[in-house]
Design a protein that fits this description.
Elements: H1 4-10, E1 15-20, H2 25-32, E2 38-42, H3 50-60, E3 66-70, H4 76-84, E4 89-92, H5 98-107, H6 128-138, E5 140-145, H7 148-152, H8 154-158, E6 165-168, H9 170-177, H10 187-202, E7 207-209, H11 214-222, E8 227-232, H12 233-249
Parallel strand pairs: 1-2, 1-8, 2-3, 3-4, 4-5, 5-6, 6-7, 7-8
Length: 257
């Protein structure tokens, strides 16, 4: 079992992914075939629930993209369920302290490195021996820095051995530093981003960000981020449908004079 995205980050390579927020299997399958380095199934804010998860991960297993899951919280059972279903890493929201980071990292790993319960029914279906031998090294624990406490403790969080990467939720980080959502050029927001990037560099941890658009993803990757999302499945559908409608309707007819 090789986690391609994790290998890229450890090698200092940049990677691009997208967020899967819809429960439709066909759209997930199409996204998996587009050439993205990783895809993240969103259980926190997306329309995907636990019953959909293993099916989406199953169709993604036919692609070369690394399947990640953003879990809804810190609970061991949520993290374990995502990994047992076939995720090769979890993105954990609202991590505020080094102790929380240590706890979620341990939930990702089997003893002696952690306390994950053993039962990888789907994730080990094809080669249980290979999975068990490599899971602790090949499953990514990614923690989100997006709150005032998380920002205040980011250096200690990044120092935790079991944390593989940091990830920024930009809108929540706006809230955390007291600027309106979406004002990503505000000095307070830029200072917070720079602090998170510096913490990652100091401890050899790659830093990713939710990019919202291809343009913002490209900007992030050129400014020090190791990985970024280029958008969401729902966002791509909305943008493409809107563009198609505008093109099909054409310009508004000119009134006769």
């Amino acid at each position: 079992m090789i986690n391609t995205a994790l290998r890229q980050w450890r090698a200092g390579e940049r990677s691009v992914g997208i967020w899967l927020t819809l429960s439709d299997l066909h759209s997930a399958e199409l996204a998996g075939q587009m050439g993205f380095d990783w895809l993240c199934v969103d259980l926190q804010h997306g329309m995907v629930d636990a019953a959909d998860l293993w099916k989406i991960l199953a169709v993604l297993s036919a692609s070369a993209a690394t399947p990640l899951v953003r879990v809804a919280g810190h609970a061991d059972d949520q993290i374990g369920r995502a990994l047992d279903s076939g995720a090769q890493g979890v993105i954990v929201p609202m991590v505020n302290t080094a102790a929380q980071a240590r706890a979620v990292a341990m939930a990702c790993r089997y003893p002696p490195d952690g306390h994950r319960s053993c039962g990888p029914v789907r994730s080990a279906a094809y080669s249980a021996a290979d999975y068990m031998a490599n899971a602790n090294q090949q499953l990514a624990c990614i923690v989100m820095i997006e709150t005032p406490d998380g920002l205040a403790n980011v250096e200690a969080i990044a120092a935790e051995d079991g944390v593989d990467a940091l990830f920024i939720g930009p809108v929540d980080l706006c809230f955390a530093v007291g600027v309106p959502p979406g004002q990503f050029d505000a000095p307070a927001f830029r200072d917070a981003v720079d602090r998170i990037l510096a913490a990652g560099r100091s401890h050899g941890k790659p830093v990713g960000i939710f990019g919202y658009s291809p343009e913002r993803a490209a900007e992030a990757l050129s400014s020090g981020f190791a990985f970024a999302s280029a958008g969401t499945d729902a966002g791509f559908l909305r943008a493409a449908a809107g563009a198609a409608l505008a093109l099909a309707r054409g310009p508004a007819p000119t009134a006769d004079v």
